[in-house]
Specification:
Layout lengths: L1 H7 L6 H10 L17 E4 L3 E4 L5 E3 L4 E5 L13 E7 L15 H8 L3 E5 L9 E3 L20 E3 L10 E3 L10 E3 L3 E3 L6 E3 L20 H15 L4 E11 L2 H10 L7 E7 L12 H11 L14 H4 L3 H5 L50 H12 L2 H6 L2 H7 L7 H10 L2 H8 L12 H5 L8 H4 L25 E6 L13 H14 L3 E6 L10 E7 L2 E9 L17 H11 L36 E3 L5 E3 L5
Parallel strand pairs: 5-6, 5-13, 13-14, 14-15, 15-16
Antiparallel strand pairs: 1-4, 1-8, 2-3, 2-7, 3-9, 4-6, 7-10, 11-12, 16-18, 17-18, 19-20
Helix pairs in contact: 3-17, 4-5, 5-13, 6-11, 13-16
Protein backbone atom coordinates (compact mmCIF):
# COMPACT_ATOMS: atom_id res chain seq x y z
CA UNK A 1 0.00 0.00 0.00
CA UNK A 2 2.83 2.38 0.83
CA UNK A 3 4.47 1.79 -2.54
CA UNK A 4 1.12 2.23 -4.30
CA UNK A 5 0.51 5.54 -2.55
CA UNK A 6 3.98 6.80 -3.38
CA UNK A 7 3.57 5.91 -7.04
CA UNK A 8 0.02 7.21 -7.40
CA UNK A 9 0.50 10.86 -6.39
CA UNK A 10 -0.69 13.09 -9.22
CA UNK A 11 1.30 15.82 -10.90
CA UNK A 12 -1.17 18.26 -9.34
CA UNK A 13 1.00 18.23 -6.21
CA UNK A 14 3.70 19.98 -8.19
CA UNK A 15 1.45 22.66 -9.63
CA UNK A 16 2.04 25.32 -6.92
CA UNK A 17 5.76 25.38 -7.69
CA UNK A 18 5.28 25.14 -11.45
CA UNK A 19 2.77 27.97 -11.53
CA UNK A 20 4.81 30.14 -9.19
CA UNK A 21 7.91 29.70 -11.31
CA UNK A 22 5.99 30.61 -14.44
CA UNK A 23 4.43 33.65 -12.80
CA UNK A 24 7.69 34.89 -11.35
CA UNK A 25 9.87 34.30 -14.38
CA UNK A 26 12.69 34.92 -11.93
CA UNK A 27 11.53 38.52 -11.61
CA UNK A 28 13.23 38.99 -8.25
CA UNK A 29 16.64 37.88 -9.39
CA UNK A 30 18.85 39.91 -11.69
CA UNK A 31 19.85 37.59 -14.46
CA UNK A 32 17.32 35.02 -13.27
CA UNK A 33 17.67 32.27 -10.73
CA UNK A 34 20.39 30.49 -12.69
CA UNK A 35 22.73 28.68 -10.35
CA UNK A 36 26.48 28.67 -10.63
CA UNK A 37 28.71 25.62 -10.77
CA UNK A 38 29.85 26.32 -7.22
CA UNK A 39 29.38 23.31 -4.92
CA UNK A 40 28.33 23.58 -1.28
CA UNK A 41 31.10 23.67 1.29
CA UNK A 42 28.91 21.46 3.44
CA UNK A 43 25.77 19.40 2.92
CA UNK A 44 24.28 18.82 6.34
CA UNK A 45 21.48 16.53 7.49
CA UNK A 46 20.31 18.46 10.54
CA UNK A 47 17.30 16.41 11.69
CA UNK A 48 15.97 12.87 12.04
CA UNK A 49 13.21 12.84 9.42
CA UNK A 50 13.14 11.26 5.98
CA UNK A 51 10.68 10.42 3.24
CA UNK A 52 10.57 7.36 1.01
CA UNK A 53 11.40 7.27 -2.64
CA UNK A 54 8.95 5.80 -5.13
CA UNK A 55 10.33 2.31 -4.60
CA UNK A 56 8.93 2.44 -1.07
CA UNK A 57 12.31 1.46 0.42
CA UNK A 58 14.89 4.18 -0.28
CA UNK A 59 15.26 6.67 2.54
CA UNK A 60 15.71 10.31 1.51
CA UNK A 61 16.77 12.84 4.14
CA UNK A 62 16.47 15.87 1.83
CA UNK A 63 13.62 17.27 3.94
CA UNK A 64 16.03 17.74 6.86
CA UNK A 65 19.06 18.96 4.94
CA UNK A 66 20.76 22.30 4.36
CA UNK A 67 23.41 23.30 1.84
CA UNK A 68 26.05 25.70 3.13
CA UNK A 69 28.23 27.97 1.01
CA UNK A 70 31.15 29.87 2.56
CA UNK A 71 33.00 32.91 1.20
CA UNK A 72 36.25 32.06 -0.54
CA UNK A 73 38.38 33.90 1.99
CA UNK A 74 37.85 31.36 4.74
CA UNK A 75 38.15 27.68 5.53
CA UNK A 76 35.87 25.17 7.17
CA UNK A 77 38.54 23.55 9.30
CA UNK A 78 40.48 25.95 11.49
CA UNK A 79 37.54 27.68 13.14
CA UNK A 80 39.11 31.13 12.82
CA UNK A 81 36.63 32.55 10.31
CA UNK A 82 33.13 32.63 11.78
CA UNK A 83 31.13 34.20 8.97
CA UNK A 84 27.89 36.14 9.06
CA UNK A 85 25.24 33.93 7.53
CA UNK A 86 21.94 34.14 5.65
CA UNK A 87 19.53 31.19 5.74
CA UNK A 88 17.21 30.77 2.76
CA UNK A 89 13.71 29.24 2.86
CA UNK A 90 11.93 28.17 -0.32
CA UNK A 91 8.28 28.63 -1.21
CA UNK A 92 5.85 26.10 -2.67
CA UNK A 93 2.53 26.51 -0.81
CA UNK A 94 3.93 24.24 1.96
CA UNK A 95 3.20 21.18 -0.20
CA UNK A 96 6.03 21.38 -2.73
CA UNK A 97 9.41 22.95 -3.45
CA UNK A 98 12.93 22.14 -2.34
CA UNK A 99 15.99 24.02 -1.21
CA UNK A 100 18.33 25.18 -3.96
CA UNK A 101 21.25 22.79 -4.21
CA UNK A 102 23.25 25.23 -6.32
CA UNK A 103 24.47 28.74 -5.57
CA UNK A 104 21.91 31.13 -7.05
CA UNK A 105 22.22 34.88 -7.65
CA UNK A 106 21.49 35.80 -4.03
CA UNK A 107 23.99 33.24 -2.82
CA UNK A 108 26.72 34.66 -5.09
CA UNK A 109 25.93 38.25 -4.10
CA UNK A 110 26.21 37.46 -0.41
CA UNK A 111 29.39 35.42 -0.79
CA UNK A 112 30.96 38.36 -2.60
CA UNK A 113 30.30 40.43 0.52
CA UNK A 114 31.87 37.85 2.83
CA UNK A 115 28.52 36.48 4.05
CA UNK A 116 27.82 32.73 4.13
CA UNK A 117 24.64 31.32 2.63
CA UNK A 118 22.62 28.26 3.67
CA UNK A 119 19.71 26.92 1.62
CA UNK A 120 17.39 24.99 3.93
CA UNK A 121 14.91 22.21 3.26
CA UNK A 122 12.00 21.39 5.56
CA UNK A 123 9.18 18.86 5.73
CA UNK A 124 6.31 19.45 3.32
CA UNK A 125 2.65 19.28 4.19
CA UNK A 126 0.87 16.24 2.76
CA UNK A 127 3.98 14.05 2.57
CA UNK A 128 4.57 11.21 5.03
CA UNK A 129 7.85 11.31 6.96
CA UNK A 130 9.54 8.82 9.22
CA UNK A 131 12.39 8.65 11.69
CA UNK A 132 14.58 5.88 13.05
CA UNK A 133 13.85 5.13 16.66
CA UNK A 134 17.28 3.60 17.07
CA UNK A 135 20.37 3.32 14.94
CA UNK A 136 20.55 0.37 12.62
CA UNK A 137 23.58 -1.12 10.93
CA UNK A 138 25.17 0.97 8.20
CA UNK A 139 24.10 0.09 4.67
CA UNK A 140 26.06 -2.62 2.95
CA UNK A 141 26.86 -3.09 -0.69
CA UNK A 142 23.81 -5.34 -0.91
CA UNK A 143 21.63 -2.41 0.09
CA UNK A 144 22.14 -0.73 -3.30
CA UNK A 145 22.69 2.60 -1.58
CA UNK A 146 22.36 5.81 -3.52
CA UNK A 147 25.35 7.12 -1.61
CA UNK A 148 27.29 5.22 0.95
CA UNK A 149 28.80 7.90 3.14
CA UNK A 150 26.70 6.84 6.12
CA UNK A 151 27.31 10.20 7.78
CA UNK A 152 25.15 13.25 8.24
CA UNK A 153 27.59 15.98 7.27
CA UNK A 154 29.78 16.37 4.22
CA UNK A 155 32.32 19.19 4.52
CA UNK A 156 33.81 20.16 1.17
CA UNK A 157 36.13 23.06 0.58
CA UNK A 158 37.43 21.85 -2.76
CA UNK A 159 35.20 18.93 -3.75
CA UNK A 160 33.14 19.21 -6.88
CA UNK A 161 30.06 17.34 -5.69
CA UNK A 162 28.02 16.64 -2.57
CA UNK A 163 25.25 14.16 -1.92
CA UNK A 164 22.56 13.98 0.71
CA UNK A 165 22.95 10.79 2.69
CA UNK A 166 20.44 8.22 1.41
CA UNK A 167 20.33 4.48 1.73
CA UNK A 168 17.98 1.61 1.08
CA UNK A 169 16.58 -0.26 4.03
CA UNK A 170 14.60 -3.47 4.07
CA UNK A 171 10.83 -3.18 4.52
CA UNK A 172 10.91 -0.18 6.85
CA UNK A 173 13.24 -1.86 9.27
CA UNK A 174 16.54 -3.35 8.17
CA UNK A 175 19.42 -0.87 8.23
CA UNK A 176 17.44 1.64 10.25
CA UNK A 177 16.37 -0.09 13.41
CA UNK A 178 12.78 0.54 14.42
CA UNK A 179 10.96 3.11 12.26
CA UNK A 180 8.20 5.46 13.38
CA UNK A 181 5.99 7.90 11.51
CA UNK A 182 6.57 11.58 12.23
CA UNK A 183 4.29 12.82 15.00
CA UNK A 184 2.13 15.92 14.95
CA UNK A 185 3.86 19.09 16.22
CA UNK A 186 2.00 21.21 18.75
CA UNK A 187 2.48 24.93 19.39
CA UNK A 188 1.88 26.76 22.65
CA UNK A 189 -0.54 29.69 22.23
CA UNK A 190 1.20 31.81 24.85
CA UNK A 191 4.89 31.26 24.15
CA UNK A 192 4.96 29.91 20.63
CA UNK A 193 7.06 26.95 21.81
CA UNK A 194 6.89 23.89 19.56
CA UNK A 195 6.74 20.34 20.88
CA UNK A 196 5.85 16.85 19.73
CA UNK A 197 2.22 16.12 20.46
CA UNK A 198 1.97 14.60 23.95
CA UNK A 199 0.52 11.34 22.70
CA UNK A 200 2.78 11.18 19.64
CA UNK A 201 -0.27 11.37 17.41
CA UNK A 202 0.49 10.88 13.75
CA UNK A 203 -0.22 13.44 11.06
CA UNK A 204 -2.79 11.09 9.56
CA UNK A 205 -4.77 11.07 12.82
CA UNK A 206 -5.37 14.83 12.73
CA UNK A 207 -8.83 15.84 11.50
CA UNK A 208 -8.65 18.91 9.30
CA UNK A 209 -10.73 21.91 10.27
CA UNK A 210 -10.22 23.91 7.04
CA UNK A 211 -7.06 23.09 5.10
CA UNK A 212 -3.38 22.32 4.74
CA UNK A 213 -2.04 25.29 6.71
CA UNK A 214 -3.01 23.51 9.92
CA UNK A 215 0.06 21.29 9.49
CA UNK A 216 2.66 24.08 9.22
CA UNK A 217 3.94 23.56 12.74
CA UNK A 218 6.37 21.03 11.29
CA UNK A 219 7.69 23.71 8.91
CA UNK A 220 8.47 26.01 11.83
CA UNK A 221 9.94 23.14 13.86
CA UNK A 222 12.32 22.16 11.07
CA UNK A 223 13.33 25.75 10.42
CA UNK A 224 14.19 26.17 14.10
CA UNK A 225 16.16 22.92 14.20
CA UNK A 226 18.07 23.82 11.05
CA UNK A 227 19.03 27.28 12.28
CA UNK A 228 20.03 25.92 15.67
CA UNK A 229 22.39 23.49 13.96
CA UNK A 230 23.68 26.13 11.53
CA UNK A 231 24.68 28.71 14.14
CA UNK A 232 26.37 26.04 16.28
CA UNK A 233 29.05 25.60 13.61
CA UNK A 234 32.48 27.03 14.33
CA UNK A 235 32.60 28.73 10.94
CA UNK A 236 29.34 30.66 11.51
CA UNK A 237 28.89 33.84 13.56
CA UNK A 238 25.64 33.39 15.47
CA UNK A 239 25.43 37.13 16.21
CA UNK A 240 25.01 38.03 12.52
CA UNK A 241 22.15 36.00 11.06
CA UNK A 242 19.84 36.95 8.20
CA UNK A 243 16.88 35.22 6.59
CA UNK A 244 15.85 35.30 2.94
CA UNK A 245 12.92 33.63 1.22
CA UNK A 246 9.87 33.92 -0.95
CA UNK A 247 6.20 33.04 -0.82
CA UNK A 248 5.43 30.36 1.81
CA UNK A 249 9.01 30.57 3.10
CA UNK A 250 7.90 33.69 4.94
CA UNK A 251 6.15 31.68 7.63
CA UNK A 252 9.43 30.10 8.74
CA UNK A 253 11.28 33.43 8.61
CA UNK A 254 8.76 35.31 10.72
CA UNK A 255 8.60 32.49 13.25
CA UNK A 256 12.39 32.40 13.59
CA UNK A 257 12.64 36.17 13.93
CA UNK A 258 10.04 36.16 16.72
CA UNK A 259 11.50 33.03 18.34
CA UNK A 260 15.23 32.97 17.55
CA UNK A 261 16.62 29.56 18.49
CA UNK A 262 19.69 29.11 20.66
CA UNK A 263 22.21 31.91 20.43
CA UNK A 264 21.06 33.13 17.02
CA UNK A 265 20.78 36.90 16.68
CA UNK A 266 18.65 37.57 13.63
CA UNK A 267 19.30 40.97 12.07
CA UNK A 268 17.52 40.97 8.70
CA UNK A 269 14.73 39.43 6.62
CA UNK A 270 14.60 39.75 2.83
CA UNK A 271 11.20 38.59 1.60
CA UNK A 272 10.09 38.53 -2.05
CA UNK A 273 6.67 37.55 -3.36
CA UNK A 274 5.67 38.15 0.22
CA UNK A 275 2.54 36.88 1.93
CA UNK A 276 1.12 38.85 4.82
CA UNK A 277 -1.21 36.41 6.55
CA UNK A 278 -2.23 32.77 6.33
CA UNK A 279 -3.98 30.91 4.90
CA UNK A 280 -3.69 32.50 1.44
CA UNK A 281 -5.40 29.54 -0.21
CA UNK A 282 -8.64 28.48 1.45
CA UNK A 283 -8.20 32.02 2.74
CA UNK A 284 -9.75 33.04 6.04
CA UNK A 285 -10.77 36.22 7.83
CA UNK A 286 -7.27 37.59 8.53
CA UNK A 287 -6.33 37.44 4.85
CA UNK A 288 -9.67 38.75 3.64
CA UNK A 289 -9.32 41.56 6.16
CA UNK A 290 -5.98 42.62 4.70
CA UNK A 291 -7.62 42.91 1.30
CA UNK A 292 -10.71 44.67 2.62
CA UNK A 293 -8.56 47.31 4.30
CA UNK A 294 -6.47 47.76 1.15
CA UNK A 295 -9.17 47.96 -1.51
CA UNK A 296 -12.43 48.32 0.44
CA UNK A 297 -15.08 46.07 1.94
CA UNK A 298 -17.26 46.44 -1.15
CA UNK A 299 -14.54 45.61 -3.67
CA UNK A 300 -15.56 42.52 -5.69
CA UNK A 301 -13.39 39.44 -5.49
CA UNK A 302 -13.93 38.93 -9.23
CA UNK A 303 -11.70 41.93 -9.95
CA UNK A 304 -8.69 40.13 -8.41
CA UNK A 305 -8.97 36.41 -9.16
CA UNK A 306 -10.47 34.47 -12.08
CA UNK A 307 -13.60 32.41 -11.52
CA UNK A 308 -11.88 29.11 -12.30
CA UNK A 309 -9.51 29.56 -9.34
CA UNK A 310 -12.22 30.28 -6.76
CA UNK A 311 -12.15 26.68 -5.55
CA UNK A 312 -8.45 27.00 -4.73
CA UNK A 313 -8.33 30.54 -3.32
CA UNK A 314 -11.63 30.55 -1.44
CA UNK A 315 -12.29 26.81 -1.17
CA UNK A 316 -9.86 23.98 -0.43
CA UNK A 317 -8.30 22.55 -3.58
CA UNK A 318 -7.08 19.49 -1.66
CA UNK A 319 -10.71 18.42 -1.53
CA UNK A 320 -10.79 18.49 -5.32
CA UNK A 321 -7.67 16.32 -5.44
CA UNK A 322 -8.94 13.98 -2.75
CA UNK A 323 -11.94 13.02 -4.81
CA UNK A 324 -12.81 10.25 -2.39
CA UNK A 325 -12.25 12.25 0.79
CA UNK A 326 -14.78 11.48 3.49
CA UNK A 327 -16.87 14.10 5.15
CA UNK A 328 -15.49 15.60 8.35
CA UNK A 329 -18.12 16.46 10.92
CA UNK A 330 -21.63 17.77 10.40
CA UNK A 331 -23.66 20.87 10.90
CA UNK A 332 -24.88 19.70 14.30
CA UNK A 333 -21.59 18.27 15.53
CA UNK A 334 -20.53 19.04 19.07
CA UNK A 335 -17.04 19.06 20.53
CA UNK A 336 -16.16 17.32 23.76
CA UNK A 337 -13.34 19.66 24.75
CA UNK A 338 -9.84 18.78 25.91
CA UNK A 339 -9.54 15.31 27.38
CA UNK A 340 -6.64 15.03 29.79
CA UNK A 341 -6.12 11.39 28.90
CA UNK A 342 -6.24 11.67 25.14
CA UNK A 343 -4.59 13.80 22.52
CA UNK A 344 -6.52 16.88 21.49
CA UNK A 345 -6.02 16.03 17.85
CA UNK A 346 -8.02 12.81 18.08
CA UNK A 347 -11.52 12.79 16.66
CA UNK A 348 -13.94 14.25 19.17
CA UNK A 349 -17.45 13.07 19.93
CA UNK A 350 -20.13 14.21 17.53
CA UNK A 351 -21.93 13.33 14.36
CA UNK A 352 -20.28 12.90 11.00
CA UNK A 353 -17.29 10.95 9.78
CA UNK A 354 -13.60 11.69 10.08
CA UNK A 355 -11.80 13.29 7.14
CA UNK A 356 -8.77 11.10 7.73
CA UNK A 357 -7.21 9.78 4.58
CA UNK A 358 -7.99 6.23 3.56
CA UNK A 359 -4.76 4.55 2.40
CA UNK A 360 -5.00 3.37 -1.16
CA UNK A 361 -8.17 5.39 -1.80
CA UNK A 362 -7.45 9.10 -1.35
CA UNK A 363 -4.31 9.26 -3.45
CA UNK A 364 -3.61 13.00 -3.67
CA UNK A 365 -1.56 13.19 -0.46
CA UNK A 366 -0.20 10.78 2.13
CA UNK A 367 -2.83 12.02 4.60
CA UNK A 368 -5.95 14.09 4.22
CA UNK A 369 -5.78 17.89 3.91
CA UNK A 370 -9.49 18.21 3.30
CA UNK A 371 -12.55 19.06 5.35
CA UNK A 372 -15.24 18.18 2.83
CA UNK A 373 -18.05 19.78 4.83
CA UNK A 374 -16.28 23.14 5.09
CA UNK A 375 -15.28 23.01 1.44
CA UNK A 376 -18.78 22.23 0.18
CA UNK A 377 -20.33 25.01 2.25
CA UNK A 378 -17.74 27.51 1.02
CA UNK A 379 -18.14 26.45 -2.61
CA UNK A 380 -21.91 26.74 -2.38
CA UNK A 381 -21.63 30.24 -0.98
CA UNK A 382 -18.99 31.63 -3.36
CA UNK A 383 -17.74 29.35 -6.12
CA UNK A 384 -20.39 26.96 -7.44
CA UNK A 385 -21.88 29.50 -9.82
CA UNK A 386 -20.71 32.56 -11.69
CA UNK A 387 -23.46 34.58 -10.01
CA UNK A 388 -22.27 33.63 -6.51
CA UNK A 389 -18.68 34.41 -7.43
CA UNK A 390 -19.47 37.80 -8.91
CA UNK A 391 -21.46 38.76 -5.81
CA UNK A 392 -18.55 38.02 -3.45
CA UNK A 393 -16.91 41.02 -1.78
CA UNK A 394 -13.92 41.17 0.53
CA UNK A 395 -16.06 42.48 3.36
CA UNK A 396 -18.48 39.56 3.06
CA UNK A 397 -15.63 37.05 2.88
CA UNK A 398 -14.10 38.51 6.04
CA UNK A 399 -17.42 38.15 7.84
CA UNK A 400 -18.14 34.56 6.84
CA UNK A 401 -14.77 32.80 6.46
CA UNK A 402 -13.77 33.00 10.12
CA UNK A 403 -11.19 30.74 11.70
CA UNK A 404 -12.64 29.26 14.91
CA UNK A 405 -9.93 30.02 17.46
CA UNK A 406 -11.84 28.04 20.05
CA UNK A 407 -9.13 25.59 21.16
CA UNK A 408 -5.60 26.17 22.34
CA UNK A 409 -4.09 24.78 19.15
CA UNK A 410 -6.36 26.75 16.84
CA UNK A 411 -5.62 29.94 18.73
CA UNK A 412 -1.91 29.19 18.63
CA UNK A 413 -1.96 28.73 14.87
CA UNK A 414 -3.66 32.08 14.37
CA UNK A 415 -1.43 33.99 16.76
CA UNK A 416 1.96 32.31 16.57
CA UNK A 417 2.24 31.13 12.96
CA UNK A 418 -0.36 32.61 10.65
CA UNK A 419 -0.03 36.32 11.46
CA UNK A 420 3.33 37.94 10.56
CA UNK A 421 2.08 41.24 11.97
CA UNK A 422 1.97 39.65 15.42
CA UNK A 423 5.42 38.13 14.91
CA UNK A 424 6.71 41.57 13.98
CA UNK A 425 5.54 42.90 17.32
CA UNK A 426 7.84 40.31 18.86
CA UNK A 427 10.95 41.23 16.91
CA UNK A 428 10.28 44.96 16.61
CA UNK A 429 10.81 47.59 19.28
CA UNK A 430 7.61 49.60 19.11
CA UNK A 431 4.99 47.45 20.81
CA UNK A 432 3.96 48.03 24.41
CA UNK A 433 2.44 44.56 24.56
CA UNK A 434 4.16 42.29 22.04
CA UNK A 435 1.95 39.35 22.94
CA UNK A 436 -1.29 40.56 21.50
CA UNK A 437 -3.36 37.50 22.29
CA UNK A 438 -6.82 36.68 21.06
CA UNK A 439 -8.37 39.64 19.31
CA UNK A 440 -12.06 40.38 19.10
CA UNK A 441 -12.45 38.70 15.73
CA UNK A 442 -11.10 35.43 17.09
CA UNK A 443 -13.30 35.64 20.18
CA UNK A 444 -16.34 36.25 18.02
CA UNK A 445 -16.10 32.77 16.55
CA UNK A 446 -17.06 31.22 19.88
CA UNK A 447 -20.32 33.18 19.99
CA UNK A 448 -23.19 30.88 19.03
CA UNK A 449 -25.07 33.73 17.37
CA UNK A 450 -22.26 34.49 14.91
CA UNK A 451 -23.19 33.33 11.42
CA UNK A 452 -20.12 31.99 9.62
CA UNK A 453 -19.29 29.13 7.33
CA UNK A 454 -17.28 27.62 10.15
CA UNK A 455 -19.95 28.04 12.82
CA UNK A 456 -22.76 26.63 10.74
CA UNK A 457 -20.68 23.71 9.51
CA UNK A 458 -18.80 22.90 12.68
CA UNK A 459 -16.50 19.91 12.50
CA UNK A 460 -16.47 17.24 15.17
CA UNK A 461 -12.70 17.31 15.52
CA UNK A 462 -10.10 18.24 18.04
CA UNK A 463 -6.62 19.66 17.72
CA UNK A 464 -3.25 18.76 19.26
CA UNK A 465 -2.23 19.92 22.69
CA UNK A 466 0.96 18.81 24.37
CA UNK A 467 0.94 17.75 28.02
CA UNK A 468 4.72 18.02 28.34
CA UNK A 469 6.14 20.54 30.84
CA UNK A 470 5.40 24.13 29.93
CA UNK A 471 8.09 25.93 27.98
CA UNK A 472 9.78 28.80 29.85
CA UNK A 473 8.72 32.33 28.92
CA UNK A 474 10.52 33.45 25.81
CA UNK A 475 13.32 35.94 26.06
CA UNK A 476 12.81 39.39 24.57
CA UNK A 477 14.21 39.86 21.07
CA UNK A 478 17.94 40.55 21.08
CA UNK A 479 17.34 43.50 18.76
CA UNK A 480 14.96 44.78 16.14
CA UNK A 481 15.03 42.80 12.89
CA UNK A 482 15.24 44.84 9.69
CA UNK A 483 12.72 43.87 7.00
CA UNK A 484 12.96 44.13 3.20
CA UNK A 485 9.88 43.25 1.12
CA UNK A 486 9.37 43.28 -2.64
CA UNK A 487 6.22 42.25 -4.55
CA UNK A 488 5.72 42.86 -8.25
CA UNK A 489 2.54 40.86 -8.94
CA UNK A 490 -0.60 42.96 -9.29
CA UNK A 491 -2.84 41.24 -11.84
CA UNK A 492 -5.64 38.68 -11.53
CA UNK A 493 -3.81 35.59 -12.80
CA UNK A 494 -3.84 32.61 -10.44
CA UNK A 495 -0.48 33.07 -8.72
CA UNK A 496 -0.90 36.82 -8.28
CA UNK A 497 -3.37 36.68 -5.40
CA UNK A 498 -1.08 35.00 -2.81
CA UNK A 499 1.87 37.20 -3.84
CA UNK A 500 0.01 40.41 -4.59
CA UNK A 501 1.32 43.95 -4.11
CA UNK A 502 -1.46 44.35 -1.53
CA UNK A 503 0.59 42.16 0.82
CA UNK A 504 3.67 44.35 0.50
CA UNK A 505 1.66 47.48 1.24
CA UNK A 506 0.33 45.85 4.41
CA UNK A 507 3.91 45.36 5.62
CA UNK A 508 4.49 49.12 5.64
CA UNK A 509 1.75 49.70 8.20
CA UNK A 510 2.73 46.65 10.27
CA UNK A 511 6.43 47.59 10.34
CA UNK A 512 5.68 51.11 11.49
CA UNK A 513 3.38 49.84 14.24
CA UNK A 514 5.92 47.27 15.46
CA UNK A 515 9.01 49.45 15.27
CA UNK A 516 10.64 47.28 12.60
CA UNK A 517 13.10 49.10 10.29
CA UNK A 518 11.84 48.46 6.78
CA UNK A 519 12.25 48.77 3.04
CA UNK A 520 9.20 47.92 0.92
CA UNK A 521 8.74 47.86 -2.84
CA UNK A 522 5.46 47.13 -4.61
CA UNK A 523 3.79 47.89 -7.90
CA UNK A 524 0.49 49.73 -8.31
CA UNK A 525 -2.75 47.80 -8.02
CA UNK A 526 -6.43 48.31 -8.67
CA UNK A 527 -8.08 50.63 -6.08
CA UNK A 528 -4.75 51.49 -4.48
CA UNK A 529 -4.79 54.69 -2.49
CA UNK A 530 -2.17 57.40 -2.98
CA UNK A 531 1.17 56.17 -4.37
CA UNK A 532 4.40 56.57 -2.46
CA UNK A 533 6.36 59.81 -2.55
CA UNK A 534 9.30 58.02 -4.18
CA UNK A 535 8.79 55.72 -7.15
CA UNK A 536 11.30 53.82 -9.25
CA UNK A 537 11.02 52.44 -12.78
CA UNK A 538 12.91 49.16 -13.15
CA UNK A 539 13.51 47.01 -16.23
CA UNK A 540 12.59 43.43 -15.30
CA UNK A 541 11.68 40.39 -17.38
CA UNK A 542 11.50 42.33 -20.62
CA UNK A 543 9.22 45.05 -19.30
CA UNK A 544 9.42 48.22 -17.24
CA UNK A 545 7.84 48.01 -13.82
CA UNK A 546 7.18 51.02 -11.64
CA UNK A 547 7.61 50.39 -7.93
CA UNK A 548 6.33 52.33 -4.98
CA UNK A 549 9.13 52.65 -2.42
CA UNK A 550 8.87 53.01 1.35
CA UNK A 551 11.62 53.08 3.97
CA UNK A 552 11.89 54.56 7.42
CA UNK A 553 15.64 55.17 7.19
CA UNK A 554 16.36 56.29 3.63
CA UNK A 555 17.99 53.05 2.57
CA UNK A 556 17.98 53.68 -1.20
CA UNK A 557 19.63 57.10 -0.77
CA UNK A 558 22.81 55.65 0.72
CA UNK A 559 25.80 56.45 -1.51
CA UNK A 560 26.77 52.78 -1.74
CA UNK A 561 23.20 51.64 -2.37
CA UNK A 562 22.02 54.36 -4.77
CA UNK A 563 24.06 53.04 -7.74
CA UNK A 564 22.41 49.60 -7.44
CA UNK A 565 19.31 48.64 -9.38
CA UNK A 566 16.24 49.13 -7.22
CA UNK A 567 14.87 45.85 -5.95
CA UNK A 568 17.73 43.84 -7.41
CA UNK A 569 19.50 40.94 -5.76
CA UNK A 570 22.54 43.16 -5.33
CA UNK A 571 20.44 45.69 -3.45
CA UNK A 572 18.89 42.95 -1.32
CA UNK A 573 22.36 41.67 -0.40
CA UNK A 574 23.38 45.24 0.40
CA UNK A 575 20.39 45.50 2.74
CA UNK A 576 21.67 42.47 4.65
CA UNK A 577 25.13 44.04 4.90
CA UNK A 578 23.65 47.28 6.24
CA UNK A 579 21.58 45.38 8.81
CA UNK A 580 24.75 43.52 9.84
CA UNK A 581 26.64 46.85 10.23
CA UNK A 582 28.97 45.65 7.49
CA UNK A 583 28.35 48.41 4.98
CA UNK A 584 32.10 48.86 4.61
CA UNK A 585 32.17 45.62 2.57
CA UNK A 586 29.92 47.20 -0.10
CA UNK A 587 31.69 48.56 -3.18
CA UNK A 588 32.23 52.31 -2.72
CA UNK A 589 30.74 54.43 -5.51
CA UNK A 590 33.93 56.41 -6.20
CA UNK A 591 36.61 53.84 -5.51
CA UNK A 592 38.17 52.32 -2.40
CA UNK A 593 39.33 54.43 0.47
CA UNK A 594 36.71 57.16 0.20
CA UNK A 595 35.66 57.57 3.82
CA UNK A 596 32.86 59.98 2.97
CA UNK A 597 30.78 57.28 1.32
CA UNK A 598 29.49 55.66 4.48
CA UNK A 599 25.80 54.89 4.60
CA UNK A 600 23.59 56.72 7.05
CA UNK A 601 23.37 54.77 10.29
CA UNK A 602 20.01 52.95 10.21
CA UNK A 603 17.87 52.91 13.33
CA UNK A 604 18.67 49.32 14.29
CA UNK A 605 18.90 48.82 18.06
CA UNK A 606 21.98 46.80 18.90
CA UNK A 607 22.33 44.20 21.65
CA UNK A 608 24.42 45.35 24.57
CA UNK A 609 25.75 41.96 25.64
CA UNK A 610 25.29 39.57 22.71
CA UNK A 611 28.57 38.02 21.72
CA UNK A 612 29.77 35.18 19.59
CA UNK A 613 31.34 32.12 21.15
CA UNK A 614 33.75 32.01 18.22
CA UNK A 615 37.06 33.70 18.66
CA UNK A 616 37.72 35.79 15.57
CA UNK A 617 35.73 37.24 12.71
CA UNK A 618 37.37 38.35 9.47
CA UNK A 619 35.56 40.33 6.82
CA UNK A 620 36.03 40.00 3.10
CA UNK A 621 38.10 43.17 3.18
CA UNK A 622 40.53 41.40 5.47
CA UNK A 623 39.94 43.37 8.66
CA UNK A 624 39.68 41.57 11.97
CA UNK A 625 37.34 42.31 14.82
CA UNK A 626 36.33 40.84 18.11
CA UNK A 627 33.44 38.46 17.64
CA UNK A 628 31.51 40.43 20.25
CA UNK A 629 31.63 43.44 17.94
CA UNK A 630 28.60 44.23 15.80
CA UNK A 631 30.71 44.80 12.72
Amino acid sequence: QLLRRKMAKPIARLLPCILLAAAQQHGNHDGGATTSTRSPNATVVYGPYFSLEDDGRTQNAECNTYYLYLPSNGTTTNGSYPFPVVAAFHGGAFTSGTAATGCDAMCEALLALGIAYASIDYRLVGTAYFSCEKDGPPPSDDDDASSGSGGTTTNQTEANQTNVTTFVFDQLGGGCGAVSAAAFIDVDPETGALSVDANASSLASYSVRVGRQEFVTQVAADASAALTHLVSREDIDETLVGLVGESAGGLAMHYLAAHPPGRATIRAIVYTDAQFSYPVDNALDETWGVWAEAVGDDAPLADYIPFDTCGQTVGNDACELETNATESGGANATESGVNATSSENATEAGSGESSRRRPGVDEAYDYSLCNATWHRATMAMYCDSAAAFEAATFGRLRETQVWPADTAFRRALAEQLWAPARAMREYGVGSEDPRDHHDAAANATTNATTTTVNATNATATTTPHATSPSAPPRDPPKQAVALYVKNHMNASARMNFPHHAVNARAYVKAAEAAGVPYVVYHTDYLRMDAPSAERFAVAEDGETRVYNYYSDFGFAAGPRVAPLTRGSVDEQAAFVAVAFDLEHVLPPPFGPGDDDDALPTPPFPRPSSSSSSKTTKKTKAGSSASASSTG
